[in-house]
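Entry 14. Ran structure prediction on the chain below.
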Amino acid sequence: MNPIKKTLLDINNAYIFFCASIYLGMFWSLHFFWFPNYPKTLNLDNYYDAIIPQTDLATKFFFITIPIMSVALLIMLITEWKTGLRWVPLSWIPGLLIPVIVQQRYIEDINNQFKAGVTDEVILQELLQEWMWLNDIRWIILTIMWGITMYFFIAKAKPKYQAQSHD
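Output, structure tokens:
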């Protein structure tokens, strides 16, 4: 393979791992550091500032990174189609689509309720529990996807795959 093409492909695949790692870090942090404290520390007076600005920024960030990642995954799929690793980009189809659907279909509704202003503590706690549970679904899926992506790079470092051409 042409060295420039190889470098561009490496950058492409590294971007996928970069996005997978951002997802991994964000969801592991939420699950282990923030979620355990939310039920006992968030209340009607402080939940908004603890959730909404961060989720709005994350939404804007991923609105940019996910489409680029989708193109990068398509490039990975094309270049790996004739190798034993085509299953990696294929697995990203549900691995990226399901978390996005969970966000858009279910979590966004809860975010909108948070933004509108929750006035009952019981409802706030119910919404928080559902919001955390839905995000934990994404945490599990995206952790698996990070592992799959890491496997891709480990496999590519093995002589069997280094000898294969992607032309």
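Residues 15-81+117-153 form one domain. Will compare against last week's run tomorrow.
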